[in-house]
């Protein structure tokens, strides 16, 4: 992957600016700084390797060279989009899941809020960050990491959740630049539908563990248990507790609840 071939693969995608790095600390950090210095809507940061890739809650995201996609897209929310900040979250996950489906015979799932699972294992992680000026949402950065070859997957002992790569599945995969272009094309297409119920329905159709009992681990809070019902129009997870109440979850890690667990 190099800047020239990236530019040629992205020629039909509405990317307004591109910064490519063979190695960088984190594409999200670069995108956030760029956003603060005037990055236009659709500015894209891509790296072959990240030395300090980040997950949520400052967890680490591993990107080794030649094995993965790591990129961050800056979006400038329109006034209508500002009303639905929670809905930027599924844009990337839906785009990756649909791209993966088109490259494999499997159906990718979305583990709320936006991990993409293939065969029940994590293929892609997404970190959504925002840049504010006072109370005004200035920009949203959607950071996406996708494991393409088995070498991208960190050793099991470093993982909170089992992981996989696209090449772990049968079939051959196109060049990285092409996969990136496919994901971005779908992301921009879903963006047009950000305030439509169609987006929520597509998200729900791919929701992992729907109808099953899960545990939600939330930083500094008690574990919540319940049955996954779906997502709300604002992007929260809808959960039914043992008492039969519906609760809406805004953040956390979802895990399938082991059978027999109290
Ligand atoms: C995420 O966080 O899954 C969000 C990851 C976002 C990464 C992208 S890459 C481009 C952009 N630049 C960045 O710096 N970040 C974004 P979370 O749900 O918190 O999951 C983090 C956990 O995933 C870690 O604690 C590990 O257990 C696991 N992990 C780390 N690297 C992985 C990999 N390559 N594949 C699968 N799991 C991984």
List keywords for this structure.
262 residues, alpha+beta, seven-stranded mixed β-sheet, five-stranded antiparallel β-sheet, 31% strand, globular, binds biotinyl-5-AMP
Descriptive account of the structure:
This protein is of the alpha+beta class and 262 residues long. Helix content is 23%, strand content 31%. Strands 1-2-3-7-6-5-4 form a 7-stranded mixed beta sheet, with helices on both faces. β9 and β10 (237-240) form a beta hairpin. It is globular. The model has no long low-confidence stretch (mean pLDDT 94). It binds biotinyl-5-AMP.
Give a quick precis of the structure:
The chain is of the alpha+beta class and 262 residues long. Helix content is 23%, strand content 31%. Helix 2 links the parallel strand 1 and strand 2.
Helix and strand run: HEHEEHHEEEEHHEEEEE
Instruction: Note the gap between the termini.
Output: 49 Å
Spans where pLDDT lies below 50 across 5 or more residues: none
Shape: globular
Which strands sit side by side, in order, in the main sheet? Answer: 1-2-3-7-6-5-4
Relative helix content = 10-25%
Fold topology:
Blueprint: H1 3-9, E1 17-24, H2 27-36, E2 43-50, E3 68-75, H3 79-82, H4 89-103, E4 109-111, E5 115-118, E6 121-133, E7 136-147, H5 176-191, H6 197-205, E8 213-217, E9 224-231, E10 237-240, E11 246-249, E12 253-256
Parallel strand pairs: 1-2
Antiparallel strand pairs: 2-3, 3-7, 4-5, 5-6, 6-7, 8-9, 8-12, 9-10, 10-11
